[in-house]
Amino acid sequence: MTILNLVSIVFLGVLFFLAYFHISNYILDAYGKKTLKVYNFENSLRVIVFIAPAFIVLFIFILYPVFETIRLSFYDKFGREFVGLYNYKWAINDPEFRRSIFNNLVWLLVVPTLSTFFGLVIANLADRIWWGSIAKSIIFMPMAISFVGAGVIWKFIYEYRGPENTQIGLLNAIIVSFGYEPQAWLTIPIWNNFFLMAIMIWIQTGLALVIFSAALRGIPKEMIEAARIDGASELKIFFSIIIPYLEQTILVIWTLITIIVLRIFDIIFAMTNGEWQTGVLANLMYDWMFRGGGDSGRGSVLAIVIMIGVIPILAWNLYKHRQEQKV
Amino acid sequence: MRKLSISSILSQLLLLFFVIIWIIPTFGLFISSLRDKDLLAISGWWTSLTTTKVNEIYRMSGMDSQIEEDGYFKIKGKLFDENSGKKIQSFGITSKKINEFNIGDIATFKDESEVFLDEYGNYEWRSKIQFKKKKGKRLFTTSLSPPAFTFENYREVLFKEGIGRAFVNTMAVALPSTLIPLIICSFFAYSLTWMKFYGRDTLLAIIIASLVVPLQMSLIPILTIYNDFGALFGVAAKSYPGVWMAHTGFGLASTTFLLRNFLKSLPNEMMEAAKVDGASHYDIFLRIIIPLSIPAFASIFILQFLWCWNDLLVGLVFLDQVPSEIILTAKLKELLGSRGENWEILTTGAFVSMTVPLFIFFALQRYFIRGLVAGSVKG
Question: Which end of chain A has fewer CB atoms surrounding its CB within 10 Å, N or C?
């Protein structure tokens, strides 16, 4: 496909949707009120015109797949024969699956906690310093780049050369300058998980930081001033005023990062591809989508396990939504 | 007062520490992408910021360039480009003694040919008998090298490694994948906010539930649909329109949710007044909603665009990994596997892939942050 072709299909693709809305609404505007005397009927047609594209996409890409994935998890690798709980039993007994669940849990424990913690600390520091907004910009920047790009950045930091060579990876260069042996960081089981998590923390701290910064502005200045006058130390203010005040925000950020971490795929795929015991559920699932021609049963089970992780958050969101509707 | 200033200095130092930790990885990548690839492979990027001593190996020209002069056969040439600013301090003719000679010394090889070398890398190699080898001999140099940067890696990566094409492909994926959801979701959000119809609340609840559904739940069924569709109509199953629609599907819930939250905040009286004047919903949408929503559109555009630009999984599953379709992230991942030792290619490729996000980040940071703070949750 030449670049010119590419530009034209991009253009046509976008134009198609604009044209759909314009033409269908134009017809309704011109003829709707005259021919369809009943206002309600015209109105329902309009609703359909407005909703149809989004609803069709929602149905095809989210609603139908959720039920189909659940169905497929009870079927064989081609999705043809019903096998009951076979795929689930396979998963429970599969060492790779257990390893992935374990890794996922460690990720879920470490990354949201540390990202939220660093975000909160940095937001507080930056709030009181004149060059704080520049600092925030710099720490926020990794949020803009891709996980794979971040993977390359950090793989370069973790780069390992044999002890007889000059180390070009920053981490090993530091270690060697202190007189230790260089290490192939990404191949040391258990610990390598933490080196991968560091990348995610590096990225997600920015997210926590900007949301906390916005929330900090909501704390009444008088309250903190009053505490200072009463002789409270900065640490005391942080723990007794700021943290209780930001409780809701902390929870929101923590869930946000949890959802992102639950389906973490790119970083591990790019850095280790799940080797040296670094695999997580999303990687194992991708693997089973294509391994041996693909196994839709096992792949679906893995997707469902990821889904189970978000169900509490989903239920909580729906509950909150309902409360808001009542008001 | 004094206590306050100490704590202020402490917090400044602590913040500085965080900033340095956060900036160094990206800075190192950027510097490395501008370095000479041979230097990159043998020394850390931090050494390139100051004048450093480097050991290098060069090979002189062979018999083809010899001339006869003053009773000698001579080969003259240059070891490196003068622009590099390097100055040779000492050199050697065997790998065991690389510092054997100083500049100005005459080094004599086993075959009794002699070589002079000046500090700028110009050499004159002479011999009484004719040179008979195609390749020249090796010289080992130790030189002082000032910081030197080049765009050579970018030229190589953009035009030879296929990153340039992948860049175009990524743009062709990300732009429609951002505009299409923005178009269809603005109508969707409008009807969810300002139109009354049966099932509206259920639909809203479905959107909120879909916010957190991981996209892994959709991969297998959609891939099957695409393959069946491709087989039925005899077209390639994986294609650009396919990937746009996939991104539209995965971004639909969050885009609708954010837009609806924004539309809800607009005053109801305005719509009512327009309706009384006989405006249709489409009129209201075009004349009132769109002009008011530009800032919200900007935030959502940036979020979705960055998400599509940085995505790997969707591009991997729904596009073929061929030069005319592969996206930047997938290309980078491929290079990580095939050119894992060629850091000049990896660092430069990664930086090219980051140019657009970084541009958006620095130019439109305000909208980006606003979108994130508005509560983006993406499955």
Answer: C
